[in-house]
Structures are given as C-alpha cells and as structure tokens.
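Section 5.1 Outputs to date
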Amino acid sequence: MVVLSEEFYREVQNHPIPTDLEAAKALSSSPAALDLFTWLSYRCFTAKGRERVPLFGEFGLVSQLGSVEYARPRKFREKLEGWLTVIRTMWPECPAVIDRDGTGLIVDCARAVLIQEAIMPDKGRNSTIWPIPLSQIEEIVSAHLGPGRVRGKAPVPCLSRQVSMYLAKHVAGWNLPKIGRFYNGRHHTTVLHAVEKIERLRKTDEAIDALLDVLTATLASEGKASLLTPISSAHLELIDAVAPPSKTL
C-alpha cells in the first residue's frame, strides 16, 4: 500500500496532468516506453514553448527516467528512438525529437492525444485497448520468429508462441482462457507461464526487449487502423470452435 501525505494529495488534485490512461495500459508491455510516455505527458503539458532537455548528466533524461543501464550515449539514443516510435503510434503529434547532435531531446507544448473509443470483445463496455484479432498477432509475430500456433515443444515455435501470448495479454487485452483456446486449446495456466517467462526475459535479454518494442509498435499501428472495426462475434466463435479441450503443453 502506498500512503500519500495530505499535502501531496492536495497538490495532485489541484494540479492534474492530462494523460491517456488507456494508452498507459497498452504500454504496460513496454515499461521503458511507458515511463517515457508519462514523462512526456507531463513535460509537454508544462512546457511554455520549445525546450531542450539534455540526455545525459545529473539532470539529464537518463537520470530522470532512471535508465542507468543505458548510460552509454549511443545505446541510450538507440533505445530512445525505439521508445519514441512506440509512443508515436498512439500519439502521432508527439513533438519530442532528438536534436541533431544527439545530446538532447527537444520538446514543445502539447497534450497527449486521447484515442477514439472502441468496443473490446468479452468486456461489453467502452475501452481504448486496441481490438487486435489473435490471428493477426500470430501473423505479425510469425513474420519475425516463425509460426507459433503449432503442436509440440520445439524451442523456436515455443518462443514465438510465448511472445504472441505475452502481446495478446498485455497489448491487445485478451484474457488468458481465450488466448489458450486459440493456441490449440492450451490451459490458461500455460498462457500465464508464457507471459511471466517473457516478462523475465525482457529484463535480461536486450534482443528480446528490442524485438518486443518493435512488435508493440507494429501491433499498436495495426490496432489504431481497426479502432472503428470491433472484433466480430464470428472471430470469437471461431476460436471456441477450432480449439480442442484445454490442456497444458
């Protein structure tokens, strides 16, 4: 439990910073991009005009984001470009750009753009999590890692499947049982294991972390394009129809 002081609570209530909570939910699969999105929401809202924020140094962006593991300038700039790409899929007008010499981030006065509302499957309420079909997630991930919707425990398809399950849960908002049924009737605990495994890999494997940033950006772009086309009941019925009874790997 986090307990806020009365003074801090009043300050938050009196000076709120507008942001897009649904975008924050969608970015939960990319913690670094989420940190940057939250920081930009604040910094662009409070900016009086065009401003330059240094990337390095005591008061640089690296220190503000707590990204000490990316202390090498070139490495941090590469990651920053990737995070900005993810953010722009939801906030195309985001004014943040890295300056020409690569030592600062240029920001300007702006507000994080709210995404249009769409109807998510099996929720029956308005939400801005993108309605991306599981088949589309599988297709996008397969283009990078090969097909994952196959039987067996071969390492390469298994990793592809686990990445797809992770993205289906964190980016598209599908529940575990439906993800499992789509992947040949696997039990929801198997899906949970896959999601937790990828979460651990993101912290230790830079290649996986970078790939997931790319896939998140791709799915975000695809999802925005289909915001006005909610997932049909036929797609949901197909998942239930083709899946055999639930089982573990």
